[in-house]
């Protein structure tokens, strides 16, 4: 029989947290949606290394998603291509 309070974040909530973080939501917004504090999420990540890895992977996905959209748009849209070249320091191809 476990001693102490049950954990606020169960497996389903952890999965939903990772999904929301991957979608680009801030930790504060995710915590509000889950009905807890940001500290609760961070504390649970410290307690559960697997959750911490999934949370870090979700944050990486969130950061890379907008760049992937711009890269796809740059293939057909000259403005998107120019924007991408400006931000990444790539030179325009010679004609």
UniProtKB/TrEMBL annotation:
It comes from the Bacteria. This is Resolvase HTH domain-containing protein. Residues 75-95 are annotated as: Disordered. Pfam families: HTH_7. One of its GO terms (molecular function) is DNA strand exchange activity. Residues 4-43 form the Resolvase HTH domain.
């Amino acid at each position: 029989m476990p001693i102490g309070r049950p954990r606020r974040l169960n497996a389903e909530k952890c999965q939903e947290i990772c999904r929301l973080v991957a979608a680009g939501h801030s930790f504060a917004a995710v915590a509000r949606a889950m009905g807890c504090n940001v500290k609760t999420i961070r504390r649970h990540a410290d307690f559960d290394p697997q959750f911490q890895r999934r949370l870090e992977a979700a944050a990486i996905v969130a950061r890379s998603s907008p760049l992937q959209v711009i890269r796809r748009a740059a293939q057909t849209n000259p403005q998107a291509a120019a924007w991408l070249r400006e931000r990444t320091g790539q030179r325009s191809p010679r004609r």
